[in-house]
Design a protein that fits this description.
The protein starts with 11 loop residues before the first helix and ends in an 11-residue tail after the last helix. The chain has about 270 residues and is α/β, with parallel strands linked by helices. It is built from 11 helices and 8 strands. The mean pLDDT is about 95. An 8-stranded parallel beta barrel has the order 1-2-3-4-5-6-7-8, surrounded by 6 helices. It has a single domain, classed as Phosphoenolpyruvate-binding domains (TIM Barrel). Bound molecules: 3-methyl-2-oxobutanoic acid. The site of 3-methyl-2-oxobutanoic acid has 11 residues, from strand 6.
Length: about 270
């Protein structure tokens, strides 16, 4: 059953309007055609072809081995069948270490892969890269908080922004990235109060994962949302499959919970 009433492709302007109007943005990762169709039929607003594919598809123990070719391959599988979602492609580790490299690789994600936006991890270090992409018509989502590509620098997958100086720094970075042309922010594993301040401080949509219910939208890795997590389920995630018979029902349940604000609940948030 197709529950989606969305007939035209969502654009960044629609996502900004959703933020202004307080309508929550439902996002999820997808890496293939089947789940793209299921997600769009269920009414997903945004699909991220994340470098999490390195872990959930390729079986690596981090996202670091993922290449631009890998992301382009999975983006093609998604964009080939996509009709209405806004598609984001993840820039892999070391694919945006300087502006020229970032421009070339972002162009591949958009031209070959069909992405509508690229996502990169980083904070003030990206202030030299983001404007270069933005000025060339490449929409950018800046990923703040827990940055899985920096797992070895951060010493593990830990909540970020818990002490005052890192919280102030993250808020400052968020504002600066928005001023330098970022069109979206993604906050991963950030205390809910800090995520609320960041969402209120910028006009661009802020999508959260483990960042509380005040973000403008939520994202989960597909496998976590439909009960296919291998190993430990992250504390911020919820398995929507429960008694459901088909993954499509879990995807619909997730979208409904994001839209009505019942996900994330307190147990999925950090202080
Ligand atoms: O790669 C990915 O799937 C991500 C999510 C954790 C948001 O960046």
């Amino acid at each position: 059953m197709n529950l989606s009433t969305q007939t035209k492709r969502l654009a960044i302007t629609d996502l900004r309007a959703m933020k202004r109007e307080g309508r929550k943005i439902a996002c999820m990762t997808a890496y293939d055609a089947t789940f793209t169709v299921l997600q769009e039929e269920a009414g997903m607003d945004v699909i991220l072809v994340g470098d999490s594919l390195g872990m959930v598809v390729q079986g690596h123990d981090s996202t670091l081995p993922v290449t631009v070719d890998d992301v382009v391959y999975h983006l093609k599988s998604v964009s080939r069948v996509s009709r209405c979602a806004f598609i984001i492609g993840d820039m892999p580790f070391m694919s945006y270490a300087n502006p020229q490299q970032a421009i070339e690789n972002a162009a591949r994600l958009m031209q070959e892969g069909g992405a509508h936006m690229v996502k990169l991890e980083g904070s003030e270090t990206q202030l030299s890269v983001v404007p270069e992409l933005s000025q060339r018509g490449i929409p950018v989502c800046a990923h703040l908080g827990l940055q899985p590509q920096a797992v070895h620098k951060m010493g593990g997958y830990r909540v970020q922004g818990r002490d005052e100086s890192s919280a102030t720094g993250m808020l400052r970075d968020a504002r600066a990235l928005a001023e330098h042309g970022a069109d979206m922010l993604l906050l991963e594993c950030v205390p809910a109060e800090l995520a609320k301040s960041i969402s209120g401080a910028v006009e661009i949509p802020v999508i959260g994962i483990g960042a509380g219910g005040s973000c403008d939208g939520q994202i989960l890795v597909l496998q976590d949302a439909i009960g296919l997590t291998v190993g430990r389920m992250p504390r911020f995630a919820r398995d929507f499959s429960e008694q459901q018979q088909h993954p499509a029902q879990a995807i619909r349940a997730y979208i409904k919970a994001v839209k009505d604000g019942s996900f994330p609940a307190d147990e999925h948030c950090f202080t």
